[in-house]
Amino acid sequence: MKLRKQPVIAALACSLLASTLSGIGIERFRMDGLVAASDLIAVVDVAEVKREGPAEPIWFRNQLLQAERYSAELTVKRIIKGPALSHAIARYSLPTSFVGYRGLQTGTRIVFLTRRADSYYVADPYYPDFPAVGEGPESAAAEYDYPGRVLTEMLSVIASPMSTPAEKFEILRVDYALPHSPEVVAAFKKGLAGGAEDLKEKLQGELIRFGDLSELSPVVNLLLTAGAAESERVWLLYVIGNRITDHRAIPALRPLLRADDSAVRAAAAQALWHIADRTAVSDLSNALRDPDAQVRFYAVRACADIAAEPGWGGPGEAEFQQHQQKYLAHWQEWAKAQSQ
User: Fold this and answer.
1) Is 251:213 a contact under the CB 8 Å cutoff?
2) Which among 130, 174, 293, 331 counts the fewest CB atoms within 10 Å?
3) Per-residue pLDDT at 25
4) Taking the model in full, what pTM does it have?
């Protein structure tokens, strides 16, 4: 029987997305790099973005692309980095064909601009701005800790009940760049209150990814009752299977091993592999007899990591497929001995 890879669908999806974005030239968001490249970082109100006509063609990956010029008048609410201004005009050009470049959005935004002569231009065409809140959030960052102050602005969007789900998801699309810090966890917890269910589930997965298990039991219930939005279900299975390493999660994971859905059982077994704690041996003994080959594979890997037996280290998938009964028999006998 071939091993299915449902618990890692999200990882594969992320990989495919990253490959697609890389194919059109989109770089990963790097806070420090964007801050360093910006002469002006400010929270502004953008009332209107104007198209000003054809621009000089833009070189992109050895291609010369036709482009359009844009400008936006900015009413400055607060300065993060740069000179004290009340108004500014931001200029930029965008190719007429999509290559991942983005223009400024209307509304309250935090913008990243670089100065050339007497004009301001977007510092990074991939990440020209992010949503922001109107009132200035309190920040523990020092005055010249610009990345810290930008992070506070971004997290305030997640935490604010006034931000829209679309604005919060816009911040979460660069979740990989956010530090695993108490400040981030606190903002995500505040963001759980109210809002769309898929946003809540996204944040629950993020908290689990950051090592906060407070939302694990609600997530387990969502998966057992098929209550999660399909777009977030795959994400939650990925987080459970790949990001949990704390042995305190084992009691909450046990019900997932009895789920009707094999993808849910496989995610739980994969988590037990990463946890590798002896208190899960009886659970793994049952998983070794699971009808799903992927569940059995992760159970074997978990037993191997717990026992650390020379010569019986966890097999790769190809090895397991070829000699599955040998590994299952060995680890079933080992698990039985542990219970005696």
Assistant:
1) no
2) 174
3) 55
4) 0.85
Residue segments in the chain with a per-residue pLDDT below the cut of 70: 1-25
In 3D space, the residue among 317, 316, 310, 312 whose CA is nearest the CA of residue 329 turns out to be: 312
Q: What is the pLDDT of residue 14?
A: 42
Give the CATH H-level superfamily of domain 6-10+194-338: Leucine-rich Repeat Variant (1.25.10.10)
- How high is the pLDDT of residue 241? 98
pLDDT of residue 284: 97
pLDDT (0 to 100) of residue 57: 96
- Asked if 279 and 339 touch (Cβ cutoff 8 Å), the reply is no
SS3 annotation, the chain:
CCCCCHHHHHHHHHHHHHHHHHHCCCCCCCHHHHHHHCCEEEEEEEEEEEEEEEEEEEEECCEEEEEEEEEEEEEEEEEEECCCCCEEEEEEEEECCCCCCCCCCCEEEEEEEEEECCEEEECCCCCCEEECCCCCCCCCCCCCCHHHHHHHHHHHHHHCCCCCHHHHHHHHCCHHHCCCCHHHHHHHHHHCCCCCHHHHHHHHHHHHHCCCHHHHHHHHHHHHCCCCCHHHHHHHHHHHHHHCCCHHHHHHHHHHHHCCCHHHHHHHHHHHHHHCCHHHHHHHHHHCCCCCHHHHHHHHHHHHHHHCCCCCCCCCHHHHHHCHHHHHHHHHHHHHHHCC
Fold of 36-145: OB fold (Dihydrolipoamide Acetyltransferase, E2P) (2.40.50)
Q: How far is CA 196 from the centre of its chain?
A: 18
